[in-house]
Specification:
Elements lengths: L1 E8 L16 E9 L10 E11 L3 E7 L12 E6 L7 H7 L3 E17 L5
């Protein structure tokens, strides 16, 4: 069954929410993929580097740099931090590809790679 391979946040992120909805939770690595193709990475601890706090009028995210060995499907890996009530967290992808406020930062974020099946997504 297809699902999401993601890096779940295990350490505190250094970003206060700009908007009222959301909690930093994960970095999406791969989506719509089969678990058996990524089984060898599940449970792997991963340190990423936060490089910028970003937001527009709808969403807020932390841009991150993944290690070169780490799979990625998004052009702009990130942690969505917060969003306005009528926004969707996935809007972070578009925000990072277009104009947005950006403040450079540099700090590590500890994560662990986990799997989530589609049927468990609400």
């Amino acid at each position: 069954m297809p699902g999401i391979l993601w890096a779940v946040i295990k350490s505190a992120v250094q970003a206060d929410p700009v908007y009222p909805v959301g909690t930093p939770h994960h970095i999406t690595l791969q989506f719509g993929v089969e678990r058996e193709d990524w089984e060898h990475l599940i449970g792997t601890e991963l340190t990423v580097e936060a490089i910028a706090h970003c937001h527009n009028e709808r969403v807020q995210a932390i841009a991150v740099v993944l290690p070169v060995w780490c799979p990625r499907q998004n052009a702009y890996p990130h942690i969505t931090v917060s969003w306005v009530p009528d926004a969707n967290p996935v809007e972070s992808n578009q925000m990072l590809a277009t104009w947005h406020h950006r403040k450079k930062v540099s700090y590590p974020v500890q994560t662990v790679i986990e799997w989530l099946e589609w049927e468990k997504i609400e």
